């Protein structure tokens, strides 16, 4: 689903954030990038949806070469969840979730059904939550909306950058469990960035350990626990 061929990134100021790397992420895989702050995780993630352009190398998403597709077409196939809860504060929950479906000109009924379906998936009753604004939700509830908003138009790929780091430990654990359960149903290709090895082991089908802009190990959680 996602392939990197000798992809590297050097920023304008000369910082090499990512050394040439090869990577293949399978369809439906929950893939985690883990490593200390500054090791190149976010840069790697953002190259997938071209928020950052690679300096060298090729990236393929869903069989298509990055460079042959318009950025907005690429981004329609890729949901994106950030650490900072980034809901539009002046919009209701339903308006927030509808942003991408509206951009794609879905009809009202289809969007409305999708909103209810997504809210049910994360245990939030649409009758209660559809018309609320972000400041009327807990941190955990806001990030649930952040996650389902990224899923709204049913993209095959979802990128998540430390989505639960800003939450308290109890909310974080609940959202981790809910995400695992959700993934059983939706089977998206998820690329998830975290600096927390426990979180990586709990969530990942496979885990890539990064250090100094390189991937130093790619393993299943079981393998990683045996050969840390
Ligand atoms: P991580 O997500 O693992 O914390 P990043 O990908 O954010 O790592 O950063 C990797 C390296 O690139 C770090 O040394 C960081 O300081 C540097 N870096 C990140 N963004 C920029 C930028 N826009 N310009 C210059 N250097 C950057
Ligand atoms: P926070 O911990 O930031 O306040 P949460 O979303 O974790 O936000 O929890 C808000 C409330 O919703 C809690 O009181 C919890 O009991 C309830 N809640 C959260 N997730 C679920 C769930 N999956 N099933 C049932 N109740 C839940």
From TrEMBL:
<keyword id="KW-0547">Nucleotide-binding</keyword>
<dbReference type="GO" id="GO:0016887">
    <property type="term" value="F:ATP hydrolysis activity"/>
</dbReference>
<comment type="similarity">
    <text>Belongs to the ABC transporter superfamily.</text>
</comment>
<dbReference type="InterPro" id="IPR017871">
    <property type="entry name" value="ABC_transporter-like_CS"/>
</dbReference>
<keyword id="KW-0067">ATP-binding</keyword>
<dbReference type="InterPro" id="IPR027417">
    <property type="entry name" value="P-loop_NTPase"/>
</dbReference>
<dbReference type="Pfam" id="PF00005">
    <property type="entry name" value="ABC_tran"/>
</dbReference>
<protein>
    <recommendedName>
        <fullName>Carnitine transport ATP-binding protein OpuCA</fullName>
        <ecNumber>7.6.2.9</ecNumber>
    </recommendedName>
</protein>
<comment type="subunit">
    <text>The complex is composed of two ATP-binding proteins (OpuCA), two transmembrane proteins (OpuCB and OpuCD) and a solute-binding protein (OpuCC).</text>
</comment>
<dbReference type="InterPro" id="IPR003439">
    <property type="entry name" value="ABC_transporter-like_ATP-bd"/>
</dbReference>
<dbReference type="InterPro" id="IPR003593">
    <property type="entry name" value="AAA+_ATPase"/>
</dbReference>
<keyword id="KW-0813">Transport</keyword>
<feature type="domain" description="ABC transporter">
    <location>
        <begin position="2"/>
        <end position="228"/>
    </location>
</feature>
<dbReference type="GO" id="GO:0005524">
    <property type="term" value="F:ATP binding"/>
</dbReference>
<dbReference type="GO" id="GO:0015418">
    <property type="term" value="F:ABC-type quaternary ammonium compound transporting activity"/>
</dbReference>
């Amino acid at each position: 689903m996602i392939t990197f061929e000798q992809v590297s990134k050097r920023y304008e100021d000369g910082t090499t954030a990512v050394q040439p790397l090869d990577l293949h992420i399978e369809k439906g895989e929950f893939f985690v990038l883990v490593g200390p702050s500054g090791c190149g995780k976010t840069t790697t993630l953002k190259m997938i949806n071209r928020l950052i352009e690679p300096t060298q190398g090729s990236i393929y998403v869903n069989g298509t070469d990055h460079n042959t597709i318009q950025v907005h077409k690429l981004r329609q196939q890729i949901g994106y969840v950030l650490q900072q809860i980034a809901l539009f504060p002046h919009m209701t929950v339903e308006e927030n979730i509808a942003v991408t479906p509206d951009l794609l000109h879905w009809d009202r009924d289809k969007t409305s059904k999708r909103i209810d379906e997504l809210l049910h998936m994360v245990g939030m009753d649409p009758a209660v939550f559809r018309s609320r604004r972000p400041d009327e939700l807990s941190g955990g509830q806001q990030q649930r909306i952040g996650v389902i908003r990224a899923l709204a138009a049913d993209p095959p790929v979802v990128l998540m950058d430390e989505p639960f780091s800003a939450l308290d430990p109890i909310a974080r654990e609940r959202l981790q469990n809910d995400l695992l359960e959700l993934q059983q149903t939706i089977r998206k290709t998820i690329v998830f960035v975290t600096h927390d090895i426990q979180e990586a082991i709990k969530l990942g089908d496979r885990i890539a350990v990064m250090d100094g802009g390189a991937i130093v190990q790619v393993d299943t959680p079981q393998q990683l626990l045996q050969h840390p």
